[in-house]
């Protein structure tokens, strides 16, 4: 039941979701057939007996005590409620404190009983619990009422980087008893401030294998429902729709934004959130400005082909893990890059590639009619076959550490960054230049395309691949899939930087490459005098110099800091 929440949802169908429904104790209509009826009568008697038993269960707090709990500060180990529940067919003494629920089996007294019971004590930390539900038995098709069975806690369990949902059933047929427990637990759970109650969700139905909406319906929506999270879902109809919605909609009613899709969709939503924050703060995006942080955290449900952003904050490409990070309110601040051309903001993003990375994407985009993996392999092979270096002027400012960076940014708010004298500039022929603010973990590169940066270290990795032979370049590409140092070549240099400026020196050459031997199809990209950049998997055509700056912790993602992807490494079959 763990990775797939289907089972828990079947159980959920049999539960009432409010206290009002909890009071309705309409018995399920007995099925026809005398034998079964006798069984039901017996069961009813058993339930009544058990109800009597549970009524007399020891309670440390009266109802009044429980109601007054809001004002009372409990010590972490102070019992709030105590009672008897059946767990796994055995009676247990269950204690609720402000931090955990502990249960121990009730056993006949023996000289060693105390020691034995201690051994069998189990507990769940409430910080790991994301939902409490009233459990009822209902007949097929019955929507409300049903026989009360007890309460169920939903726990978020961690196994490696994987998060799973796990149900713990506490059975007791007493309405009052369950109500007290339900309310007490609800109250504690509602105190976890980072957990969202309302989310704006964008689903890209055309991501990768066009499965994003189904993934949302099957794996994500049921867990959001379980956690009582309200959702406002937009299934996008075109590229750019999420961005225009985010620019205009009222964000106050949400506690977070969720994107179900691949890296392109994530980049669009992240850009939208950040652009909106700049608009709200009155920043002039037609200048070199200091951006403000996004107002809401962003959750990413991976449904693309590579999912490097999701992989970098979850270490794993699993919808349930990603959903539980959102539900539990795990916040991970991340650094973001801004891309500016001629003093104007082009967009916000996480990573950029120029040269081989840009050309490959441009070629793949021109062959969109091919299935995704085929067009990627085709573009990779063809770009490798036509491998040529870019003649560029590359400038960068070495990072002075996140704290200094923030101070420096504040100081030069409004000033042109290029006036700084800390720029190092060089001219040369480069096969590829990557600039990455996050490690970009993925199954092709489990340690990341940029293992030398962290999610929020306030700097970017600049990876410069000088001109070299095709075979040496392929050796370097192959190293991404292994644990070997992919940068251990004399033709590669890496820097930790806070800003990069890249100016290509020969104009208009790339489009001819892309069009080579392909005169039958009309060019999709009209690219006279522009250069292809791969920005988070999206093709960006830039006519002149591009300025890339890092902005420490500008965006908060739902997730965690991850060292290495737990994905089984995928080797590229074509090199
Ligand atoms: N309804 C739509 N029709 C066409 N394009 C869309 C639609 N909705 C969103 N898009 C755009 O599709 C682009 C690609 O989507 P996405 O990145 O989710 O999938 P992918 O390319 O398969 O995955 P990955 O980037 O991980 O390889 C995004 O730039 C997004 O803006």
From TrEMBL:
It comes from Phoxinus phoxinus. Residues 194-343 form the DAGKc domain. One of its GO terms (molecular function) is lipid kinase activity. Residues 66-75 have a biased composition (Basic and acidic residues). InterPro entries: ATP-NAD_kinase_N, CERK_C, CERK_PH, Diacylglycerol_kinase_cat_dom, Lipid_Phosphate_FormReg, NAD/diacylglycerol_kinase_sf. Residues 34-46 have a biased composition (Basic residues). It holds the Pfam family PH_CERK. One of its GO terms (cellular component) is membrane. It comes from the Eukaryota. Residues 17-75 are annotated as: Disordered. This is DAGKc domain-containing protein. GO terms for biological process: sphingolipid metabolic process.
